[in-house]
């Protein structure tokens, strides 16, 4: 608080630091790191119990980050995570967020920050969506609002999988194998609802993403209580990840991977939107990027098998025996968030190992993600490689085939 006469900081009496109005008035000073130690402790304790103040605190911290003119105006992708971590280190949340849901929380918050300040005309800016369909890149024209409608419709698969309302009305829902991301998006666009061409598209998407984070945290906490001692990793929600599947129509993903999938798509489409309105947009932080790269790498054996079943890739030249060692490709993803993955080439069930390596691919982490999003042609990816050329080509194409509308 400041004195009207002098403009100097006053320390609130200790009893007042329990009052909601006093604590709310301190949020601006807290965001600027201008509180006393006692006030800082009181504010941060309050943020763990008061959701409106926590939201306001994050908004103010974001605004403070924009005051540094010498820095990029693009928000630090890990700012939200660092603020929350600082608060939780002082007082752990009663209902912790699963670690695998954190990238979705961060990416939706970053996209929301971009959308918040856009002019009405920018919501109608044309956006070209790109993905890899079989053996070629496919594109689709929409608008910024249309992209958000797409995210809302496909996020609805995960939302309904954890008991939340589906954003599509029952009479518009595709059924069976056709109930996947593309058909849901087309059905939602056909409705022309939720401000398909206007800022009104933001609110239902924002409310749904917040509800997804809230409810999956409760589900994870309940599963941890029901399976106490099952993993030895309290608060990770791994029981929820293993025990629940989200249907994407023709395939399913564990809840853990579904949240990572939605985080990945949110990031990629946020870049599409930022490009459409000429705004700089950075990648996720290294820890979150590593989870997203890992998701794509873990899906490659299944993608390879699917391409072979449909005749888009030649049959395996090795022994496709479940559990047996087989031919392996070493995937090296460089840079922050990268690592090493060993991909079984003969069958998703065969065992990959460094000893069975027949090929090696090295890509930058962001280049790998752009390839997995279908934004880069497989044979045009900036990849270093050596070994079996057919295995290299198969994996590059399988990576691109992970993409979809």
Automatic annotation (TrEMBL):
SUPFAM superfamilies: DinB/YfiT-like putative metalloenzymes
Plastid recorded as keyword: no
Domain of life, per lineage: Bacteria
Alphabetized Gene3D superfamilies for the sequence: Anti-sigma factor, zinc-finger domain (1.10.10.1320)
Pfam family, one: zf-HC2
DNA damage recorded as keyword: no
UniProtKB keywords: Transcription, Transcription regulation
Residue ranges occupied by any Putative zinc-finger domain in the UniProt entry: 24-54
UniProt-recorded name of the protein: Zf-HC2 domain-containing protein
Natural source organism: Streptomyces spirodelae
